[in-house]
């Protein structure tokens, strides 16, 4: 069991809890940097996809997990980031280091425009409103065919930095390192937002809007900022996804992507930054795990390779149901409980992590 002696309040808002905590994350970063030397190009491409999903998950996590606002339309902001990034590069000749953050700002502005009229909506009503936006975005992409290519789609150019071309098929190692750097920068910015007064306002609004308002928090402003920052991060993920896919159209960013994003952070652990990464691992590597197990079974039984339609969705749905029933805090929440059990053994109590109601009686019907 580790005992931490805190000498000031700064220890509560530090990036790391203690030196050993920082050591493990630095070790994880070193392993991530060395990954291209440890795995093949196929797996490296899967890890690159995982980073994209993790960034998109962090964007949605800020809104759902840390501010308590439901969203089923974040695929629309992925599309905004992907299309504006390509338009900035193709039409304005901007380099990727400028077009990507500008695409994120465009997505943030779009999110702010959506958040202003929906600040009074809560729960299922906000989810339905955002879902309608996600569905509407597919039609808007088709209508704006001169810029978006409509149903034919649009091609994302290669990323050119310092005379080096980054491409999924020609230079997946370089693309992985580039996306890893972007992910780390977003992660540091995300963590600093949570440590700031704004991040604490997000948590206050999530737990109880009435209590937050009593403490002087501007609810409408806080929710609008949360939506804008969330959509901005998601827009950056959309720019990354566009270059990774190479070509995309209106069907690439459909409502299924929005639902998958939401389910991903629930499985990973809603309210935890690490949950976005664990959920991304499940999303990306679950199909590969299913294929691996199927090949083993076919080899043992001597049967031919057979694909069952909807198997991946069924397995993911079963995982989601199991998480909701047995571990509402997701995979990262389960890891925290296992770690705490060994830290406190033999003084661990069975009901230590019993779920608590986080709402007031006046907010139950929202």
Pick out its properties:
366 residues, mainly alpha, two-stranded antiparallel sheet, globular, Branched-chain amino acid ABC transporter permease, ABC_BtuC-like, transmembrane helix
What class, by secondary structure content?
mainly alpha
Q: How many DSSP helices?
A: 14
Rounded mean pLDDT is 85
What is the string of SSEs from the N terminus onward?
Answer: HHHHHHEEEHHHHEHHHH
Distance separating the two termini: 41 Å
Describe the biggest sheet?
Answer: 2 strands, antiparallel
Share of residues in helices: 55-70%
Principal-axes geometry comes out as globular
Low-confidence stretches: none
State which percent range the strand residues make up. under 5%
The spatial strand order of the largest sheet comes to 1-4
How many domains make up the 3D coordinates?
A: 2
Number of strands: 4
Whole-angstrom Rg: 21 Å
What's the SSE blueprint?
Elements: H1 19-34, H2 41-64, H3 74-91, H4 96-115, H5 123-143, H6 145-148, E1 154-155, E2 159-161, E3 164-166, H7 172-195, H8 197-207, H9 209-214, H10 219-245, E4 247-248, H11 255-268, H12 273-301, H13 311-326, H14 330-344
Antiparallel strand pairs: 1-4, 2-3
Helix pairs in contact: 2-7, 2-10, 2-11, 2-12, 3-4, 3-5, 3-10, 4-10, 7-8, 8-10, 11-12, 11-14, 12-14
Question: What this model shows, in words?
Answer:
It is found in: Cell membrane. It is a multi-pass membrane protein. It contains 14 helices and four strands. The protein is mainly α and 366 residues long. The strands form two sheets. The chain has a two-stranded antiparallel ribbon with strand order 1-4.
């Amino acid at each position: 069991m580790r005992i931490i002696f805190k000498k000031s309040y700064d220890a509560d808002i530090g990036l790391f809890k203690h030196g050993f905590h920082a050591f493990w994350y630095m070790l994880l970063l070193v392993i991530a940097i060395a990954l291209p030397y440890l795995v093949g190009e196929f797996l490296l491409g899967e890890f690159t996809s995982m980073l994209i999903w993790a960034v998109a998950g962090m964007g949605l996590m800020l809104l759902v997990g840390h501010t308590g606002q439901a969203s089923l339309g974040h695929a629309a902001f992925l599309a905004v980031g992907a299309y504006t990034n390509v338009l900035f590069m193709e039409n304005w000749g901007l380099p990727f280091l400028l077009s990507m953050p500008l695409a994120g700002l465009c997505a943030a502005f779009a999110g702010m425009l959506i958040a202003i009229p929906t600040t009074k909506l809560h729960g299922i009503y906000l989810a339905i409103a955002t879902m309608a936006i996600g569905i509407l975005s597919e039609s808007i992409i088709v209508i704006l065919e001169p810029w978006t290519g409509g149903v034919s789609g649009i091609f994302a150019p290669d990323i050119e930095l310092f005379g080096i071309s980054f491409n999924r098929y020609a230079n997946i190692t370089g693309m992985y390192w580039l996306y890893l750097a972007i992910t780390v920068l977003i992660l540091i910015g995300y963590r600093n937002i949570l440590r700031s007064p704004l991040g604490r306002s997000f948590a206050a609004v999530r737990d109880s809007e009435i209590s937050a308002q009593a403490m002087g928090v501007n609810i409408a402003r806080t929710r609008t900022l949360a939506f804008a920052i969330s959509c901005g991060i998601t827009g950056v993920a959309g720019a990354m996804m566009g270059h990774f896919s190479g070509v995309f159209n209106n069907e690439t960013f459909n409502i299924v992507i929005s639902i998958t994003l939401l389910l991903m952070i629930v499985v990973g652990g809603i309210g935890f930054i690490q949950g976005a990464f664990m959920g991304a691992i499940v999303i990306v590597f679950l199909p590969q795990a299913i294929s691996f197990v199927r090949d083993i079974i076919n080899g043992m039984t001597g049967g031919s390779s057979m694909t069952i339609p909807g198997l991946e969705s069924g397995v993911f749905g079963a995982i989601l149901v199991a998480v909701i029933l047995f571990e509402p805090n997701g995979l990262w929440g389960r890891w925290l409980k296992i770690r705490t059990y060994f830290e406190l053994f033999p003084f661990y109590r069975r009901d230590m992590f019993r779920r608590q109601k986080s709402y007031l009686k006046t907010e139950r019907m929202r």
